[in-house]
Amino acid sequence: MNRNDLLWKGVLEDLFDDFLRFFYPDANELFNFNKGFEYLDKELEQLFPPEADNYATRYVDKLVKVFTISGEEEWILVHVEVQGYADRDFARRMFQYYSRIFDQYDKPITAFAIFADTNKNFHPKYYERVFLGTRLYYGYNSYKIIDQDDAKLEASNNPFAMAVLSAKISLSRPALNDQQLFEAAYDLAKRLLAKQIPKQKIRKVMTFLRYYLRFENPEISAKFVKELNVLTERSVTMGIEELIVDQAKKEAKLAEAKDIARAMKNDGIAVAQIVKFTRLSVEEIEKL
């Protein structure tokens, strides 16, 4: 899973109550926040097993159990997918998710597609099939980050709106050089600190902003981190970064296993033995 996927996964969990309030102004009247949320990631993986290469994931999907305040159903399922690249099969995949989730739980489902890409022509909003008098139509909530109004996001005191604005600044990379990107992000950080938002939520958004940006110049990247530390008077952040640290450790272990496998392969050791020792797949070893 790449860094952006980890960041979206983390920020959705860190700010999920704000996510609901961002899209549903009457969220406090709809959902029972006192009961918290249950993240069904493992259950979702069972319905849609990940690709063989765990580091090739290009989108984020979340399935969350949310309790309601009233109604016949005690709880509903919120399916969220963050898409970072154009995919002609995206709408069909959204329907496949809905179909399998419904078959598994038979509960009300609301689905969101958040498009975090830069292709202005890519914004699928529904899936439809028609054949010999039979018609299927599946629509879902869709949200294109680059199409959002900066002023409206900046005026919001919702932490998730600030996360969206952070992502939008990063997506403006083709039009901004490193210095302009630095200035835009630093200005956002200052405005974020001035908002009436709980400190722990500010920390979550600040971490998302810090790691989501991509600077071509490593000196400007280091300067940005330093200035954020000075601005927040903190040298250590918590929250989403645990996911990044954990992923870095996994990648380091994978790299070490591949180095060992490569050496064993060069020594003529059988592939079966290399698999047993390194726990790499036969395909991974053959590629070395």
Explain briefly what this protein structure is.
The chain is an alpha/beta fold. 52% of the residues lie in helices and 15% in strands.
Radius of gyration: 22 Å
C-alpha end-to-end distance: 21 Å
Q: What assembly state would you assign to the polypeptide chains in this entry? A: single chain
- Report the strand count: 7
The tally of helices reads 13
N-to-C order of helices and strands:
HHHEHEEHEEEEHHHHHHHH
> How would you characterize the largest beta sheet?
5 strands, mixed
Low-confidence stretches: 52-58
SSE-based structural type:
alpha/beta
Percentage of helical residues? 40-55%
Structure description:
By secondary structure, this protein is of the alpha/beta class. Among the domains are: 3-147, no CATH class; 242-287, no CATH class. Helices cover 52% and strands 15% of the residues. The chain has a 5-stranded mixed sheet with strand order 1-2-3-4-7. It has a two-stranded antiparallel ribbon with strand order 5-6. β3, α5 (90-105) and β4 form a beta-alpha-beta unit. α1 packs antiparallel against α9 (199-212), α1 runs antiparallel to α11 and α8 (178-193) packs antiparallel against α9. The chain is globular.
Features:
single chain; 288 residues; five-stranded mixed sheet; two-stranded antiparallel sheet; 13 helices; 52% helix
Helices and strands in order:
Blueprint: H1 3-14, H2 16-23, H3 27-30, E1 37-39, H4 41-47, E2 59-67, E3 75-83, H5 90-105, E4 109-115, E5 126-131, E6 134-139, E7 141-144, H6 150-155, H7 159-171, H8 178-193, H9 199-212, H10 218-232, H11 241-266, H12 271-278, H13 282-287
Parallel strand pairs: 3-4, 4-7
Antiparallel strand pairs: 1-2, 2-3, 5-6
Helix pairs in contact: 1-9, 1-11, 7-8, 7-9, 8-9, 8-10, 11-12
